[in-house]
Amino acid sequence: MTFSPFFRKLTLTTHITFSIGWLGAVAAFLAISIAGLISQNAQMAQSLYLALELVGWYVIVPFCLASLLTGLVESLGTPWGFFRYYWIVVKLFLTIVATVVLLVHMQLVSHVANTAMLATFRVADYPSLRIHFVADAGAALLVLLVITAISVYKPWGRTQYGVNKENEQRKTGPLCISTTRKPWGLYVLIGLICLAVLMFAILHLTGVMGGH
Questions:
Q1: What is the pLDDT of residue 194?
Q2: Residue 183 has pLDDT above 60, yes or no
Q3: pLDDT one-digit tens code per residue, 54-82
């Protein structure tokens, strides 16, 4: 299924809008987390951690899910496809992992926000969590910047599946093999980032980080 030019531009615009919104919301989460880290005032800290929960559930999570959904729709309705290009596979993998980690992380944010509403809440009782929120937001921002860079530079060519699909569509000529020079340094960099994100997700899911 291929969209018309109008719907292709519409889905692209929608996807870019939600992706930028996701990136901006994470930047706001990072700023609030830093403010919560350096604040020594209990009332201020309470307000900041309640704000983290609101920004997380009502801004970051919706924009994240919308970005993932519109990205899938865009791939389905355009010649890019899901698995025809390496850069799309890497971007999809990073987005899915980031979404899973976000949903797990928000459980901890909600827990801290609920605790902050109690009269016994003391900001000094959560030194590791305050640092943890800043580190999580910084890592998420880095991953989103990498995803954005991949979308712009499209650093890798077709997968073997993509080559086969193109040849099936053409039904003529020899096998089409991309002659684009492969930037192996970038391959290694993205591989390391993928590994780091995967390990980060495993640590969250197993409860090693953040006192889950």
A1: 64
A2: no
A3: 999 999 999 999 999 999 998 888 777 77
Residue spans of the domains in the chain: they are 5-206
Q: What are the beta bridge partners of residue 158?
A: 85
Cα-based distances in Å from 78 to 1, 6, 84: 8, 12, 11
Q: What does each C-alpha distance from 71 to 8, 14, 22, 201 come to in angstroms?
A: 11, 9, 13, 21
Q: Which residue has the tokens 């943890």?
A: 132
> Helix 5-38 to helix 42-55 angle, to the nearest 10 degrees?
160
- The one-character DSSP state at 107 is H
Residue 192 clears pLDDT 80, i.e. is over it? no
Look at residue 181 and give its three-state secondary structure. Answer: coil
Q: Are 91 and 147 within 8 A, CB to CB?
A: yes
Mean pLDDT of 184-191: 59
Task: Report the candidate in 58, 55, 54, 60 with the shortest Cα–Cα distance to residue 22.
Answer: 60
CA 68, 102, 195, 191 dihedral sign is: positive
